[in-house]
Amino acid sequence: MVTKPDIDLGQYKYGFSDPENYHFKSRKGLDEDIVREISQMKGEPEWMRDFRLKSLEYFRKRPVPTWGGDLSDLDFNEIFYYVRASEATGKSWDDVPEYIKNTFEKLGIPEAERKFLAGVGAQYESEVVYHSLQEDLENQGVIFLDMDSALREHPEIVKQYMGTIIPPNDNKFAALNSAVWSGGSFVYVPKGVKVEIPLQAYFRINAENMGQFERTLIIVEEDAYVHYVEGCTAPTYTTNSLHSAVVEIIVKEGGRCRYTTIQNWSKNTYNLVTKRAAAYKNATMEWVDGNLGSKLTMKYPAVWLMEPGARGEVLSVAFATDDMHQDAGAKMVHVAPNTSSQIISKSISKGTGRSTYRGLVKVHKGASNVKANVVCDALLLDESSRTDTYPYMEIEEEQVSIGHEATVSKVAEEQLFYLQSRGVSEADAMSMIVSGFIEPVAKELPLEYAVELNRLIQLEMEGSVG
Amino acid sequence: MSDTPLFQVENLHAGIEGEEILKGVDLTINRGEIHALMGPNGSGKSTLAYIVAGHPNYEVFEGRVLYKGENVLEMGADERAQLGMFLAFQYPTTIPGVSMANFLRLAVNSVRGEDDGEGGKKRIAPREFRRMLREKMQMLNIDESFATRYLNEGFSGGEKKRAEILQMAMLEPEFAIMDETVSGLDIDALRTVSEGVNKLYDGTMAMLLITHYQRLLNHIKPHYVHVMLEGRIVQSGGPELAEELEAKGYEQIRSELTPAG
User: For the whole model, what pTM was predicted?
Assistant: First the structure.
């Protein structure tokens, strides 16, 4: 924090790109033929092809949302919907092509990670090329695969759960993902198994105009536990890129799942993601969500509290800098009585950046003794930055306890002066105040992600003073 | 160079929002000296402290503040601290989410600066930092849990004052201003804080103690005492002046100084 790395901020840190050398790349735009081609290339069963085609229909019929962020510049015909970088998923590191390794190298991913992480699923383009899973996990019956492999190896589980939490017709982007999905993670944790170390996956977009539509499905059986971690970085391009993922999670009785994401998309990416979990009796679902970068992010991780004793939590941090709009939040849907939820949202806006908290707490009729708490804090770094809060509440039951706090603050002159009077430069003081502001979320992250989050924020903060 | 006083204020006229609060302050402090600045509320003591430390909201209309012969008024607060000046705040600000240890490490490194390659000050190694922090905390009777607490968040009055002294101990300034460092403390806290200050005073650093009450000076012995009234230093003397003030009160001093008429 004291040393000022010599970094040219005009250039996005992960903005390098490899020469394109793909096995297959679909043409721009989307129609039935492309969807059929994707399904055929992947050698999918008929039901999956039909699932995709049906989804394409929904996608066409669904209007582009007019709430949230501005999507008017997004041209669906300018996107590549499928790119396959490598023939098959490499099971060992040696099988991974050299240029892909180089990219991981630049991102600082491999070596150390492999040692203490249970499995590294690294997604390069639309296909997962590298995947490892420690043997003891396999022996316990834990399945951690890329989604395409899961469809081949465990079609019955995929068919049973896919689309049950987020149906293809849920919204336009969920429909799009359902039609053209590729890659993503599949995690299955059997009854009573507690996965002690976080499962991690890295995602990366590399082809210009390519949409990344990964599909993730996590099933946590009774009394099981897993922490899934996903980090994303994307290179910079001059035309718009689209990322539209779908993440479905099922946490059964007494189970617990934590899903941690730090996303740092390049500044021309539309990041439109649907994430939803269903938590059953006495189950706990926690989303920890960090949103940096992107042109527009619209993301509202949701928990449906289906049975008594279920608990949901969302901790989120958004950082919007020049020309960015972070429209993020959370949804808690209390279907059953005696369920509880907590949403803690922290946003930082800098320059012409805009952060929006958009959240929903819904309590269904009959869901008595519900406890829900929402805290959203916004920090504005200068006069031009902007924040808005839309905390929707739909409460159909009287016996509930709902709390809501929202604060908007500016970096106080007194805080800056106090730190500066200890010899700390104005820039370092500002960074320190921002790091402190997000600390309640950062401390919930695995250490290397907390460090990465702080480092990314430091980079964004550079040049914010003066 | 050795004849240059460590700290000098010359004919300082300054204030806030256009209002003149200091109306011509002169003050000289040499190395090794402890000065006490006394005066009633609103006399301008804290204003002087803020201006010397470089608070951006205050304006200087006239005069100079010299540190080691250099006018610091054009410098930022950080630069002044890097030169070796320190202000213990009367009302320290809370910085949520920033642990005392992280903050202190950044501050110590900022004050020490980059290695100049000539055997000068340099960055502190993490292990050395932890050792130093533990040692200073023990010296000041501060519980180790302070290191992981967020800066001033939820601190009691006494804890805040001790935290200020801890910062001073870590930054090792050559000149420290302590603004009402013991005001509002009970007798035990007063003793702990003043003992800490006495331990830090090594005979070569200089201090300016700003205080409303004489009682601090029973614990920390000043070499010189100054009385400030309405933005001016109206009387200076030895430690006996503090006792005289205690006996007479500020009103009598004021009336003695005002020509009868």
Answer: 0.80
